[in-house]
């Protein structure tokens, strides 16, 4: 085992705000997350992982959340939500569950792909080229249900990889890349901590600890990594963070308060995170 991994999970616009607060809080406490040997991003984490490795300061990301400038507008209908739940919860088998969701995504009427790509480019804030530092973006094959990652060696555009990781089933269309069609990387694991296997020290930021359906939680995955010998610090929203988030992770009006909650939680936990990060 070797090195450090920073894992950033999914969570929609509101979860992204909490993540921005956490990253800023840890950085302001002297924890340099940008020196990670690898950053692994899923969905919202793919966005903020790209921005972080692209050189954007966490404090800047946080302040943009406070100012309401980092909006991701997701217009999710009740019908889309119900169909998502029907697909994801229709089987107790994890493999069948994610494949059901993939089939639903492939046949759904969604917002146009152009709208999705425009939103991704806007929220990346200029971080549209693969960074020099190691960045891995997770997405799920809509047909097989398998999780895969894209990186600078994959010969795909960073914007395309991030869009694939953010392609919320039934809301945004699957993204065609590398001979397959891809949906949101958080469909079977919101954080994908398993992708950090082999790293000695892991810090994971998971705005939503569990995916919808019979899938392992971030806590379970962190325990699995620890059992294999890694030292893991997993940050999930505390009570104040969950209260600030509310139930609907698409409500941009909740983002400033949620970002503040993430910042406060990070400053409280900074010492324990530093123990893991600095070895």
Describe the secondary structure blueprint for this structure:
Elements (H helix, E strand, L loop, with lengths): L1 E7 L3 H17 L9 E5 L1 H10 L4 H9 L11 H11 L5 H14 L5 H12 L10 E7 L5 E4 L7 H8 L9 E3 L2 E5 L14 E7 L12 H10 L3 E5 L3 H7 L9 H23 L2
Helix pairs in contact: 1-3, 1-10, 4-5, 6-7, 9-10
Q: Classify the beta-strand content into a percent band.
A: 15-25%
**Structural class of the helices, strands and pairings?**
alpha/beta
β-strand number: 8
Radius of gyration: 17 Å
Globally, the shape reads globular
SSE sequence, one letter per element: EHEHHHHHEEHEEEHEHH
Helix content bin = 40-55%
Distance between the termini: 13 Å
What is the makeup of the main sheet?
8 strands, mixed
Poorly predicted ranges: none
Number of helices: 10
Average pLDDT metric: 95
Describe it for me?
Strands 1, 2, 3, 4, 5, 6, 7 and 8 form an eight-stranded mixed sheet that branches. It is globular and about 45 Å long. It has ten helices and eight strands. The chain has helices at residues 12-28, 44-53, 58-66, 78-88, 94-107, 113-124, 158-165, 218-227, 239-245, 255-277, and strands at 2-8, 38-42, 135-141, 147-150, 175-177, 180-184, 199-205, 231-235.
